[in-house]
Amino acid sequence: MRRVLPAQIVSHSQFGYKKIPASVQCECPKCSKTSLFAIKANYNHTSKSSILSHGVCSACKKESVFIMILNQTDQFSEKTALYIYDPNSAKELLTHLEKIKDIPADLTRAYRSALNVSQSKDTVATAVMSKRVLESILKNFLGEEIKGQNLSKQFEQLPKHVDLTRPLQSLSQLVQPGSAFYQMLDLEKDIDQEMAALLMELLESLIEYLFVLPNRIEFLQAKLDQKLR
Q1: Superkingdom of this entry's organism (predicted)?
Q2: Alpha-carbon torsion 171, 176, 179, 183, what sign?
Q3: How many domains does the chain have?
Q4: Which is more confidently placed, 119 or 61?
């Protein structure tokens, strides 16, 4: 998924108390041209946190999938985050994985294989490789003792082995009063273009970590449950 920036949203429509994007101008995942999308929300596929939508590219006339993430903290808030499904974003994830030294080699290989077979429209191979990716992720955190246990049991144990608060604790050290980072935020220290870009990347990662990813997983789980009924 790729975030559609607020500046790329051309118009809105009303959905209850909320304003949701009605048209956007952004890069098309199919033809790579910057074009206009008129977004049609599919209200049959909504959850408390998201709305599945579709839009047709004005240039190539091909349809893309959009997901609107609704603000959950305030039912009267008009803030809605918009994402477009872009297969190239999966390639970007692979690039990130390959740069992280602690990522297990078998996980990178499995994900690369899953990406390749999914893009070649081999659905059976996609299912097989997806299971292998899940197994590799769980093995990385749970170790060899999980052999023989089913995926359900392994996922139940995962929270005991993964410290999801560690990134936030690291940030608390970064923004301590008197630190160079704190001084930069308070304009007591100069900020250059590279630092500004890093700051924006940090903000995007933090928002995705705390808001987008939980909503996206909830949405995808609901969609999978619905498809399997």
Answers
A1: Bacteria
A2: positive
A3: 3
A4: 61
Residues 82 and 130 in one domain: no
Among 162, 182, 206, the domain boundary falls at 162
Together in a domain, 155 and 173: no
**CA end-to-end span of the chain:** 25
With beta carbons less than 8 A apart as the criterion, state whether 87 and 109 touch. Answer: no
Q: Which of 71-75, 142-146, 167-171, 209-213 has the lowest mean pLDDT?
A: 71-75
> Residue 72 pLDDT > 60, yes or no?
no
Domain boundary among 147, 162, 177: 162
Residue 22: domain span:
2-90
